[in-house]
Design a protein that fits this description.
Elements: H1 2-26, H2 32-62, H3 68-100
Length: 104
């Protein structure tokens, strides 16, 4: 139970951090280059999580890793991070379409 709470806490902290950085960028607190770098870093973080999940799964299949709960937790963390990234992308595209459809 303690491990699942840690995973939930880390995903909510990641989401909160991304929202704070986005709000700062839109409020003029950071330059566009910094915002772009933050988005790039977030995407790289998700990619690293997926790579780590693939590696730990491979290690489990080869018998190098014996803790199944560790493997499953890493897969879930990777899955949640990817789903969050996909949802952010969908919201950005939706917002862009709404802005483009606004009358001038």
């Amino acid at each position: 139970m303690q491990v699942s709470n840690k995973a939930i806490d880390s995903s909510s902290l990641l989401r909160q951090n991304m929202l704070e950085k986005a709000n700062q960028a839109f409020a003029g607190g950071e330059r566009a280059e910094d915002f772009s770098k933050k988005i790039n870093d977030a995407i790289n973080s998700v990619a690293d999580s997926q790579n780590k999940s693939a590696q730990i799964t491979k290690d489990y299949e080869l018998g190098k890793e014996t803790d199944l709960t560790k493997v499953i937790m890493q897969q879930q963390i990777s899955s949640i991070a990817f789903q969050m990234t996909l949802n952010v992308r969908n919201k950005v595209l939706s917002s862009y379409k709404d802005i483009m459809n606004m009358p001038v």
